[in-house]
Specification:
The structure is a homotetramer of 388-residue chains.
Chain A: E1 4-10, H1 17-26, E2 30-36, H2 41-50, H3 62-69, E3 78-82, H4 88-97, E4 102-104, H5 112-125, E5 129-131, H6 139-149, E6 156-164, H7 178-181, H8 186-189, H9 193-210, E7 214-222, E8 233-240, E9 245-251, E10 260-267, E11 270-275, E12 281-286, E13 291-295, H10 303-307, H11 319-339, H12 353-371, E14 377-378, H13 381-387
Parallel strand pairs in A: 1-2, 1-3, 3-4, 4-5, 6-9
Antiparallel strand pairs in A: 6-10, 7-8, 7-14, 8-9, 10-11, 11-12, 12-13
Helix pairs in contact in A: 1-11, 3-4, 4-5, 5-12, 6-9, 9-12
């Protein structure tokens, strides 16, 4: 397939933008041709030059880019929105308004209200939209999803999920960590810093693997670093539709932990465990037969899990490969749309606007519960209906 | 030291009694000379014979044993109480009433009221008493305790503790699992089966390692196996005195997990992790220097951790060695008492009656919180004062 | 069963004697009643007193003990020989000469000649004899043996075995390490220090698990610490009867390794891996189905593996439990002999005199090959015939 | 930097070519503009089309491509040679003859004679040349290299290295595995299949990490699958210049192992272990202080190790990232050459022609030793001199 003409909003130096570019590079489906990388015109120019963007396609803001590119015969075919949280929805709406497909970084926004508005616009216009819950795109996560979905574990009873990292164990937002500074500002990051930044990844992972929706949460959010304005630790008890129970833990003060995203799912017949720090293995455990270790690349994995494998059996892949799966699948959706055919049904490793909305509802419910002395608060699509 | 004359209440076939006997054997400090192993006189006789108990010291019940042995010149010097939970306190009181030191299996009883009565009796009479929270006696748990206590982790912010096992994933109490049958009966096991059986181990482990006391809990207890009368899964959010937060998870339906007792403690400077399925290692993690793996037997461990090491550096020890530490330390306390000297201050690997009381308070608080929609309920010694 | 009257030769302070005593204690089958713990009469007296040996049964040397005990009506029923290597055979012969069963520490001696003499005496007189290759007595090693024996792996092609430890990485024999001082003296330890001390454990483990006998070895022994008289590192290529190939590595200079005994066996259908630092797990791997992790205590293990389990499923056991299996099984053999019945056929976790002879042949062949520029030297029972 | 015009020889469907393309894609420095992907003109055409090569730059053979491209003003700036082993040297020479820089897959060829010829040509003409020993380009391998080089381990005593995989455990070359068919043919693959295919990776890894050169080898090569013409298992004892000893094991019949490349290096002060199945960790072990686990991305790693990190601290990377390091560093060398400046001295993650020559010498020495009953055969650059 020929390369997609692609642009980026945000993604300047020292941001997650580089990761998006590497992920887009890997399979060779994207060519970065336009962008607005910073609101600072100097930084924007420097970055554009470094990335080989011609001056006429380096824009001062996303509105200008959306307007100009939509008029070019060789205009962009898709755009990645990699700005701070509070501009996600406005930027996405701007591109959707010009029928330009969007890849949006998570969380989808800063409130369920604006997220629902975006979701409705996506649905109404039928424009492809992806949210980069990249961890759910790991091949062994897809296998976990398959194992649960095919009934291998039996009915699910317990889900334990966590995203722990240590890198914000001190007051880094006051020590020059610009990546975290805006995340620690509720006005930009939304109602919960820890849940917006990493908790929603755990939330989406848990929904992806189990196929279950939350019913309610009972939460305790805390700010454990002196001087911090934002929350940085979230303990959440979970109840799922259908009766399963669980716990979610998200923490930025887990001193010494790298990127500790882990999920364990316990069913009536078996359980599974996946940990992103060793992402190529999936532990499958039983009461009545020996435990198993499934590995990325094994020929008996499901088709979804195989689709994400680019190398020989036994070779480890990592974070970039998973992230690249999102870009590869989105490219397939765009290619199919262009060709007037249905996309490969396996090309679904990315999250939808609805997933994003449910993530925002989860955050808001947890915040409310924490404020209300741990009271159980509805946290699933029953609330989506209510808000609608 | 000469062997202690020792007796057992409970501990019949297919019970934890065998473990107590192996643990007592290891260091050679105990000789089993009397017992009441079952209320069934036939089983009692068979067990007594198998264990080499002479007929005159095989008793029909603990009251008879306490009375008779206290009158013999060669009467027992200590007794282990290994009965179902609801007879722990009465049995312990019977022996304490005759000034016989007691090793009691956990949990200490079935209510904080009776536990407090027992604690007061222990304190009033000054008789040695131990509760077998055997997991806290692992050498690497003692090292973890030392690391936290000496400030190596800095102020503690987050504690994540869990005890997961899969062996009650089906309705085993109806399928001939007599060991679980009484545990699944609240009348015998107390207000929470899952917390009484395994949750208190997690609770004591967490208090031992961190030195912190609970302030309050917000809990969700559930019974996840169809037909089960008892709870089998507990999700508990924790708040500690001094501001630390945490989660405790105890589950008997963690399909495929053996004895998954694990603790992670996160401080301002470092964190640690210990897992009883690999009990000879302790992971110590930092933001500002390389992570470390401490191993049982390493010469730089603290004195408490070294005390429990019986073999060459690098040789793995397991559950029985930890359990034996409790018996060895209790023997030292009795030997010191006999000799009129202070015991080795490191011989403290066993839990006290007060620890048992706090365990019961924790259980009762969690049950109450779960009933009250997740409301935070006091769960520490402030409640001990209140009840007192 | 009543306790066996048991004695010890060697096993003084700071020796492996304590481990033998703990192992003998665990199941309660032995009572230490006599001994000669040191050639130094003062140390001997101190140790005897500490262990509760009455003065009349504390002997100045093994000859005296063998003679005296064999005449007592309550004489010892078995003895453990835990002296330096060069006195193993003389001591064993002394006790066998008085029809006293012997548990002998490994290696069996210092030459195949004397080992064969001992083996013949054992065979001729029909006295129970055990060599403490304790690592082969781990329950998961017995399961590994079962898996290979039952054909689960198919025909064996490759065997990789190693015993690495770091504790002799510096010249400890000159720094007060008395335990190693005699081991570093070829006159006492035999022709190869590293193979005698740890290599024979690897050799016996490999024979136990695979059921294969060595055909020939090509070896490179080295002394890698400046000033050391003994070898401390052995690299050995292996050829087995039937065509399998392999490597054995034994090293005392593996800086930072605790007790790194590990075996991997590769067959036509599957492979297995066991590591004594995590002894409760056995990895079973396949090309055509998911890898498995078998765990001590799992109900589907073979009877031999189950026999060594003393605790609940999922509880880790360690080095002492494995060592105790040797003592427990030897007690069963003696009990059966006394009762005139066949012993439990599963009570075979200990090595025989013949195993000891093959261990000596292996050492001598490796030493010879190393001297002969790596030439392949016969190293199995073909050589036993030749020497006979 | 602008993209390099890049071509490929070999790398057709179902080959390692895809991996080279993904690796070249990742950092965006290469644009594939020409190629000869197969000697089968149909397959060549299909592949060229799929990869977007214009018809005029799709060539029937490498000679034609070298000649034609060197004449174009927009001719290729570098080429990757990914053919079977016996055409590596001729193809490389063809491009070098036209002053076109070459990335060559390993092993460098099929004999040390031709490899030396190639090395001399590279040296004589000063054209950039890289051999894709991609495993040595992992960031944690670079850290291992740094730790040894900076003396952290002290003088090296023992090196244990292995590359085990299970995928050729059955006679796959007769069952349609075309990727292995030519490797199992000595006429194409060279004197040792197992050493050429995977043993040279282990050899290069060991030289990279330790900085030591081999002195001699004593080897046992075997063919363990019935019907196989090629060797598939190699046991090699190693002696290094300076006195270190070691073992290398390379096996294609390690049933159930994925890509088991592992190295352990033991020095006087410390040891390290790296395993490519968990490539983001490096274990560092000591006798006199706690063991450490170093992780990719940690800020205290050496500059070489940091250079290969593209993602946030704690995110795992894998095989493709390491492979991409080779392409990225080669691009930097070419860019510097073009700009007339010295390349970044850290851009050296690729192997040289000399490394390739030493790999061939190692193979030939092992084959000779195996034929000569395990005799020690010189295997280092002393032999390079001799052959020269």
């Amino acid at each position: 397939m020929s390369k997609l003409r692609w642009a980026m909003v945000g993604g300047g130096p020292n941001s997650i933008g580089r990761t998006h570019r590497l992920a887009a590079n890997l399979d060779g489906h994207y060519e970065l041709v336009a962008g607005v990388f910073s609101r600072d015109s100097g930084k924007n120019a420097t970055m554009g030059k470094e990335l080989g963007i011609t001056e006429d396609r380096l824009y001062p803001n996303f509105e200008a880019m959306a307007a100009a590119e939509s008029k070019r015969p060789d205009g962009i075919e898709c755009v990645s929105v990699i700005t701070p949280n509070n501009t996600h929805v406005p930027a996405c709406l701007a591109f959707l308004g010009h029928a330009i497909p969007v890849i949006c970084d998570k969380p989808i926004g800063v409130s369920s209200i604006e997220a629902i508005r975006l979701m409705r616009e996506v649905d109404r216009r039928g424009i492809p939209f992806a949210l980069t819950h990249n961890y759910s795109a790991y091949t062994m996560v897809r296998e976990a999803q398959h194992l649960v979905g095919s009934g291998r574990l039996g009915k699910i009873r317990v889900v334990q999920v966590e995203y722990a990292l240590g890198s914000r164990s001190s007051l880094v937002e006051a020590q020059g960590d610009t990546r975290f500074a805006w995340r620690a500002d509720p006005a930009i990051a939304g109602p919960s810093t820890v849940l917006g930044d990493i908790g929603t990844h755990a939330h989406h992972l848990m929904r992806t693997v189990t196929g279950l929706e939350l019913e309610a949460v009972s939460a305790d959010l805390g700010s454990l670093v002196a001087g911090r304005k934002a929350d940085d630790n979230a303990n959440v008890n979970l109840r799922f539709v259908g009766g399963a129970r669980g716990q979610l833990w998200a923490s930025m003060v887990a001193c010494g932990i790298g990127q500790g995203l882990r999920i364990r799912v316990f069913g009536e017949q078996a359980s599974l465990e996946w940990h992103q720090e060793h992402p190529n293995e999936l532990n499958l455990r039983f009461e009545n037969q020996p435990n198993q270790v499934l590995r990325r690349g094994d020929p008996w994995l499901c088709e979804r899990a195989k689709r994400g494998v680019r190398t020989n059996r036994g070779q480890p892949e990592g974070y970039l490969s998973a992230f690249a799966n999102v870009y590869r699948d989105f490219a397939e959706v765009l290619a199919a749309r262009k060709a007037g055919r249905a996309p490969d049904p396996l090309a679904d490793s990315f999250a939808s606007a609805r997933d994003g909305v449910l993530g925002m509802i989860f955050i808001e419910a947890a915040v409310e519960s924490s404020r209300r002395n741990g009271a159980w608060v509805e946290a699933g699509d029953q609330r989506l209906g209510a808000t609608a």
